[in-house]
């Protein structure tokens, strides 16, 4: 058993862990590992927004263009595609790609087929909107957690392997304890979200120590009985919690919550979901997870039925990012999309 924090990222602690030194977790889990050459990754959420079935074909054509761009040189090492309907009733298709380093991402982004497409005036008109939410956490600012060691989703797909069984899990506060920065840094936020631009193209600037969590569920390997158990006993509680955060999470410090389902490029739903959620701070995320009834109901549902699930794959990744590690752009999207809702427009100086 070892620490979730890799040896080259460990340092003398000035802040203590939530668990005591003699703590032993009740079951095994692992984290993704990368070599010391990986110092910063890129997570790119590239979305297409539309309203009404009459615009569905156009939206999927745009989504396929984005995915085709992933296949260019320096494209992401792994990617997936999802659908969700937001609180305003708009449908959103999102392709998320992961890069092992900002340099590769920067070369991909600078290609005329990519930069020219996003910057084109054509994006400002028409029946669909597009957005991109780019986060580039340093390796001391993110953590992962998997109760399995193969086919790692998300950022795990661009890592080099997995750890041995880790110590820091199965207690409140373990999420923070797995982030290397937590050894010496409380990771408290400063600043605000600010919006710049207009005319259909708005850029949101993030603030220091914003938190992002991707929390996933995969029941694609389940047999009929386990499949029904998940979709009737667990998924409804999860959906209720995610809808609460989507619709009412603002006062809790949740900027944006999307509960998304994997799809193929024709729109067929797959038996995999995840929530992608932006928070004012890791503190706010922890407070909701540890105390709010909506999350506790999900926790109870999972725990009470855990022994009956043999193939369900749950995982998450959490990042705490500085202001200069974030970029959000919304083109021809409604004003409550993503982080637009909570961004303020600076007044005249």
UniProtKB/TrEMBL annotation:
Family to which this protein belongs: Belongs to the heme-containing dehydratase family.
Keyword Iron listed: yes
Designated name of the protein: Phenylacetaldoxime dehydratase family protein
Cofactor(s), names only, from the UniProt record: heme b
Keywords, alphabetical: Heme, Iron, Lyase, Metal-binding
Record's keyword annotation contains Metal-binding: yes
Domain of life: Bacteria
